[in-house]
Structure formats: structure tokens, C-alpha cells
Amino acid sequence: MSVVQDLLDAGIPHVVHEHPPIRTEADLHLTNLPWETSVKTLAFDLPDGRLALVGVPGPAKVMYGAIAQALGVSRSSLRPAGEEHLVAIGMEPGGVSPICAADDVVVLVDDCVPGMGSIYCGGGTSTTTVEVDAAAITRVAAHPLVAAIIKPE
Predict the structure, then answer these.
(1) Which long-range contacts (CB under 8 A, 24 or more apart) does 80-83 make?
(2) In 3D, which of 144, 133, 152, 118 has the Cα closest to residue 54?
(3) What letters, b where the CB count within 10 A reaches 16 and e where it falls short, cover 20-30?
(4) What are the chain's domains?
(5) What's the whole-model pTM score?
(6) For 57-97, what is each residue's pLDDT tens digit?
(7) 143 vs 145: CA distance, rounded Å
(8) pLDDT-above-70 percentage for the chain
């Protein structure tokens, strides 16, 4: 399973951009892609063993309490996903994507994301970024959730 394969299986048009490895936000300049139209992804291991992928606009600041509430867990139970959980769904640190069709993954996006139009997000590897319509994130997900999870500007 992979981000690109999930998009192909869903028949969703996309473009893959290759770049030097990205590990943190400080490396994003290496992509030469606009940060303002990006969707960053936070990954959490949930208490029931599932993985949550949380997509928000790149420049946004998240509200962890709102994320926990949308996922139906306590704030204190939100734990960053372990690398082994990411590898199990075909992703690696630096390339985590909100695009995932795996049945044991919950995909949560902020309520502004589906209407963002063309966006850039992780391609599953630290050397790829996917350009796709933001609405594809919830179309691909087996268990999509949409909620207000970013701090108002």
C-alpha cells in the first residue's frame, strides 16, 4: 500500500514531486513548493491500536484538545505514532500523508481542508510530495473525519 497507489486505485488525478529528503518543517524549503497551500500531517497511535492521520493547513497551529475530542479519546492519550506503525502503512517519517485508504487508519482533517483546492502533502516518503485536490483526502480514507481542529487566526 502507498499514497500514490491509493490515489490510483481511487482514480484521483495527482502529481508526484521529488525532492531531497525532508525530516522536519525546517527542511521544507528543499521542496521549492509553496508552504501556504500545503497540508501537514500529524500521526498518532490511538489507545485502541489504530493509527490517526491528522491533516491541517501547513501554516496552521493545531488544538490538541479538539483533535482528541474529534477522535473520541482523551487529550492525554494522544501519542505520536511510532515509526513501525507508519512503515506498516507504507509511509516513513518526513513523508507522512493524510492520504490513506487503510482500514485501520482514521483520517481526520480540519474543516477548512476539503475546500482548499489544489494542495501539496506528504507522498509517503521523505523524498516525495503529492499535489492533489484537497477533497481527495476524505474521498480516499476508509474512516474520514472532518472537524474544527486548528486555532483561529
Answers:
(1) 80/42, 80/43, 80/44, 80/45, 81/43, 81/44, 81/45, 81/51, 81/52, 82/45
(2) 144
(3) eebeeeeebee
(4) 3-147 (3.90.960.10)
(5) 0.94
(6) 999 999 999 999 999 999 999 999 999 999 999 999 889 99
(7) 7
(8) 98
